[in-house]
Design brief:
The chain is of the alpha/beta class. The chain is built from 17 helices and 26 strands.
Length: about 650
Amino acid sequence: MGYNRDMSEKEANTNRATGYALVDSSGYAGIEKKQFYYSIPENIDASAGDIFKIQFSKKNALGIVRKTVSNKPINIKGIKPVGAKVALPTSLPSYYLDLADWLSEYYVSSSKSVWSCLLPGGIASASRLKPSKPRKTKLSKINKLSDDQAQALKTINDSTATLLHGITGSGKTEVYLHAIAQCIQKSQSSILLVPEIMLTTQLENRLHEHFENVITMHSGLSIATRKKLWLECQRRSQNEPLVIVGARSALFIPLHNLGLIIIDEEHEQSYKQESSPRYDAVTVAAKLAKMTNSKLVLGSATPSLRSFYLHTKNIIGYSELKNRHKSEMPAIEIIDIKKETNALVSKRLREEIDHCLKNNLQVLLFLNRRGSARALICNSCAQAVKCTNCNISLNYHGDINRLVCHYCNTKTMPPTKCSFCSSNDMRFVGDGTKKLEAEVRDAWPDAKVSRIDRDNSKFEYLQKTYRDFAKGSIDIVIGTQMISRGMDIDKLHLVGIVDADSAMQIPDFVSSERAFSQICQAAGRAGRRSLKGKVIIQTRNADNDIIQTSAQQDYMKFYESEIASRKKFVYPPYCYLLKLQYAHKDPKRALSHAKKLMAELEKTGKITVLGPTEHFRRTLDRKTVYQIIVKSLDRKTLQSIMTKLPSGWIGDLDPASLI
C-alpha cells in the first residue's frame, strides 16, 4: 500500500471527508503493485469502479476506485481529496478491475501502462457526444449450417474454449454468426477480433446483414470516436446485447453482459502488443472469458502451434472443417525460378495472369516485402547501405528514388560509391512490392492495378481498395501479408506467391510457422466461389518441406515436424521466453551493461540464458541495443526476473519474435 506525502494534514482537511477511497493511479509508473488512499469530500458518492481526477505527485492523473472505507486509514499522513468524478454511464464492471490486476501481475506492468491500455484516450475530458445512429437495414437470415459446421457449433457450446480449425473458405464465419446469434438470444454481447483493421470492413458488413447493434472499434477511428463508442458500449450493454468487431483493443470495452469472444486468424503475430503492457490478445481473451464465464473461440486455417498443442493436451476443445463451403480448393503449382530471368513474374505466372485478364477474372500477387528493392549493396565488399539511426539496411523506393528506413522513415539519395571500400559497383537486391507494381503495370498497361502495404495503409484507402476489388473495378492487387488473410472476393481466381522463400530466411524460431501460414493463407484467397482457383508458388527451393506442406495444405505434417523441432531445441510451447533489451548511445557501455546482467542471470536457477547479442537495429535516437534471451519452464521465474531488472532494461514476456 502506498503513501501520499505531498500534502500537509492542514491542506488535507480543507475539505471534510465522509470516507476514503483506495485507488489505482494512472500516474504510477512503478512495477511493484501499489494503491493509494484519497479522501472523499462531502456530497460526492464513490464506489468501486468509479473514476476520479486526482493529483498524483504534483501531476494530474486518474484514480480508479478499488474500494471505499468509512474510517481514516491508520498511519497514512497527508491524504489528498479526490477531484472531480469522471462521468461514466456506470461504474466499471468488477471483472474489469480484476483484469487490470491480472494484466499488471501477469505481464509485470505498471498501473500507468495498464490503465492507459484499458481506458480510452480523453476519458477525463468533458465532451458532448451524440449517440451513434443505428444502421437501418433489413436483416437477413443466417445460412443454414452444413453437418460439419453444425458439429463445430456443438463443440463450441459444449466447451469453454474451442479451436476451430477450418481450411480457407470452409465457412468458419458462418459458424461465428450462429454462435453470435445464440449469444444474442441469451441477451449477451459478443466480441469478434480480427488481426488487421482492413478485415473489419468485410466482417462488419456481414454482421450488419444479420444483426442489430453492431459496433466497430479499431485504431483507424479518431480518439474522440473511440471514446464515444467505449462509453456507449458500457451504457448500452446494461440492457441489450451488442456485437463488437475490431482489432485487439476491442477486448477492453467494458461490457456488462459478455458471453462470447471470437478471435479470427488467431495465429497472427499482430495480436501481440509491442508496448507495455506487452500482452498477447489470445492469452488475455482466455483470461477474460474465464472471468466473465464466456465462451472462447479461436479460429484459423493455420492454427498457432501453441493453440494446436493445447488441443492435443485436451486443454481446449477442437473442431475441424476439412472441406471448402460451396467451392473447391484451388489447384496449386510450384514453379522453380532458379533458371528464370531477373523478372519478378515468371513465364508461367504471366501466362495465368494473361488468362485471367482475358476472361474478366481477378488476380492477387503476394510479396511480403515492400519498397522497390530490399537493399543497396556493394558488389565488391558485400556491405549494404544502412540507416545511420537504426543500423539496418535501407530499402530502395523507386517511385521517389530514395533509400528509406522502414523503422524511422529516414530518406536519403542512393550513393554511387561504397562508404566501406569506395567501390563504384553498387547493386540493388531483393525486390519489393513497388518494383513488382512497376513490372506489372509495364507488362499489362491496360489492367487496373492497386497496391496494399505499409506505405499504402490508411484506413480509408484500404476500405476503398477492398470495395473496388470486391465489385470488380480492380484487376490486380499487389500486396504484403496485409492481403494474405480474410479477403473473400467472388471473382478472385489467381493468387501468385512471388517469393515464397523470403519468410523462411528470417533468423527466428517462429520463421517456419509464419512461412507456412503466409503461403497457406495467401493461397486460400483463390477460387472461393463456383470456379476453381489457381495458385502459383514461385520459389528457388522447390523441395523444401515448408514449400511442399503448404502447397499440399497439409497442416498435420507441418505441425508434427515443427513441434518436434521446438521440443528438441526447447522453444515454446515447451518453455517460456523472456526477451531483455538495453540501449545506450555508447556501444561499449551497452555491451558492458549486458554482460553485467548476463553474469547475474547465470547465477539464477531454473533458466537458460542466451546472449548477449547486438540487435540488428538501433533505436530511433541512434542507441545501440543489446539483447538477452531467457528460457524457463517456470513462467513465475521469468516474472521475478522482470521485477528486479536494473534501470534502463526493457523486458518482454512471451515475445512473438526474438528479432
